[in-house]
Amino acid sequence: MKPRDAPKNVAVRALASVPRILRLRSVRRRKVSDFRIRSLGEEVGNLPNLITLSRLVLIPVILVFLDRGTPLGHYIASLLFILAGFSDFLDGWLARRTGKITLLGKFLDPLADKLTTLSIMVTLVGMDLIPAWLLILMLFREFAVTGLRALAMGEGVVIAASESGKQKTAFQFFGLTFLLVHFPYPLLGAGWMLDFHRMGLFVLYLSLILSLFSAVEYFALFMEAVEHKNLQRARTLQEAAREAGLLVEMQSNPSLPVIEEIEMQVALDGQAPPAGERPE
Fold first, then answer.
1. Is 77 helix (H, G, I), strand (E, B) or coil?
2. pLDDT tens digits along 153-167
3. Could you give phi then psi for residue 186, rounded to 5 degrees?
4. Torsion region of 128: left, alpha or beta (phi above 0 gives left; psi -120 to 50 gives alpha)
């Protein structure tokens, strides 16, 4: 005897064998300016990127004066390093103010920062002004955080700079500035000598502690962001399955096919996006 719910003809049986597909839809809002193709010459020629490139040019100049080992050479090297730090703030501010945030700038800005800092630290290790283990720990932290951020980008997660990471950068900047001055100088009005080398080492040790703490913080932020994204995906899938009447089948059949449709929505500058649409 045939079961009651058995298909009665070939067409019905064919339709029954077709897997039901759950479609998920997400919307990404973009501006027309985001799709404008810029040449490499245009990106290199804008003012924020030129300022960033100037920091790369300053690196060998700083190292040349530092290698002299004279008080004047150290003093000039410290002034150039302060100029590089000011340009780091200026190019970011100009890029945001003028809307000239480019892909090249996103690549060059952190590259210039890391090259400037690490080049000076390697030179200071060669001059026996800082211990080698300090540089090794700094490099370990930078490689670990950089790899973590690359892994997060692969998961579609953006990890913003933590507060301890910003404090680490500030302490590192002041510590290296004092180490570049190196020689003791009399403190005006106090009657005693200020040892810039010892002060620089002390501040750099503080920056090392903050850098290791910020690395742990970055890992915690990464785990939290990935967990939040997975939870959001699960909620979106359950909501779509409930609307399609497939919630029970989805829970009992994890191999149910799912197609994710992404719709690109272009919003003209100065106009609000259509009502009822939400960004991804």
1. helix
2. 776 666 766 677 778
3. -70, 135
4. left
The one-letter amino acid code at 83 reads L
What gap in Å lies between CA 170 and CA 172, rounded to an integer? 5
* Distance between CA atoms of residues 132 and 143, nearest Å: 17
pTM value? 0.68
> Which tokens go with 42?
């245009």
Q: CA 56 to CA 68: how far, in whole Å?
A: 20
Largest CA distance in the chain: 109
pLDDT, one tens digit per residue, over 98-119 is 777 777 778 888 888 889 999 9
Whether residue 19 contacts residue 256, with contact meaning beta carbons closer than 8 Å, is answered with yes
How far apart are the C-alpha atoms of 280 and 158, rounded to whole Å? 14
What six digits make up the tokens of 177?
């500035």
Q: Please name every residue paired with 266 in a beta bridge, in sequence order, or none if there are none.
A: 30
Q: What are the chain's domains?
A: 32-231 (1.20.120.1760)
| The token pair that represents 102 in the structure block | 């480019």
